[in-house]
Specification:
By secondary structure, this protein is mostly helical. It has eleven helices and no strands. α4 packs antiparallel against α5 (about 105-120), α4 (about 70-100) packs antiparallel against α9 and α8 packs antiparallel against α9 (about 185-215). Belongs to the binding-protein-dependent transport system permease family. It comes from Cellulomonas wangsupingiae. It is found in: Cell membrane.
């Protein structure tokens, strides 16, 4: 039986007068087109926008100047509500994380039900429940706005923190746990001195993101009714929106104040992520 002779693969012939474009040239052309589109959009917006109307409705310097003097107490209240909610959410979330990892099934069921419930409902409903429904149902009074905000937002935050901590604990290498147990450390001592410190280092970046989310969620507590001394940033912006001139200037100023809190936290998150990645690579 004879086999047909194999022919050499034919090279793809380009049409006459047409040159092959290198990948680097194509990448440059693509970037140039993207820059051109971006510049065209910016120029079109700059030409077509009525800047005098935008300035008067979005950022009126006179209205902004009046509001800035009222912002420091509201900014401090926002920070207090955030820290209070985190102080409630962190220990509760840690407890739930340990319950989800427990060998006792009812503990896992309770923790799972809690996490699924509070992750599945809007935070606004929890805030309203803590502010109005729970005091009526149980005949109790929560006079402090800080306590109401801390409990309501902390309950919601604990569900997310629990999942973050559980993932961090499970990410600790099993070999380190086995090494600690081989040295004679008890299960509890291994958990507290080996697992938990490493887990917290792993979850520091997502935990910082949780603080950013809590900061923004404090905008919900104005629905509970506040004294002037308890105003947070959204309450100041909402009231000024309905009473002062300047269109959306009040919301613009309130949003800028939120950025004073969240932007440094975002930078901290990225720094922690880089540091955690470097330690993971053994540098």
């Amino acid at each position: 039986m004879t086999t047909a002779p194999q022919t050499a693969p034919q090279t793809l012939q380009m049409p006459p007068g047409r040159r092959r474009t290198s990948p680097r040239t194509r990448a440059r052309i693509t970037r140039a087109v993207q820059y051109a589109v971006l510049v065209a959009v910016v120029v079109a917006l700059a030409v077509l926008t009525d800047w005098s109307n935008v300035t008067s409705q979005l950022f009126d310097p006179a209205v902004a100047g009046e509001l800035i003097g009222r912002m420091p107490p509201a900014l401090w209240n926002t920070v207090k509500y955030t820290l209070g909610a985190f102080a409630v959410g962190l220990p509760l979330g840690a407890l739930l994380a340990f319950m989800k990892l427990s060998s006792v099934a009812p503990y896992r069921w309770i923790a799972t039900a809690y996490v699924e419930f509070f992750r599945g409902i809007p935070a606004l409903l929890v805030v309203l429940a803590i502010g109005f429904a729970v005091p009526i149902a149980f005949g109790i009074s929560i006079p402090s706005m800080l306590a109401k905000a801390s409990i309501a937002l902390g309950l919601v935050s604990a569900a997310y923190i629990a999942e973050t901590l559980r993932a961090g604990i499970e990410a600790v290498p099993k070999g380190q746990i086995e090494a600690a147990r081989s040295l004679g450390m008890s299960h509890g001592r291994t958990l507290l001195q080996v697992v938990v410190p490493q887990a917290f280092r792993i979850v520091l970046p997502p935990m910082t993101n949780e603080i950013i989310l809590l900061t923004k969620d404090t905008s919900l507590v104005f629905l509970l009714g506040m004294q002037v001394a308890e105003y947070e940033l959204t309450k100041i912006g909402r009231d000024a929106l309905s009473t002062a001139q300047g269109g959306l200037t009040a919301l613009f100023v309130a949003g800028a104040c939120y950025l004073i809190i969240t932007l440094p936290l975002g930078q901290l998150t990225r720094w922690l992520e880089r540091r955690t990645a470097m330690k993971g690579r053994g540098k």
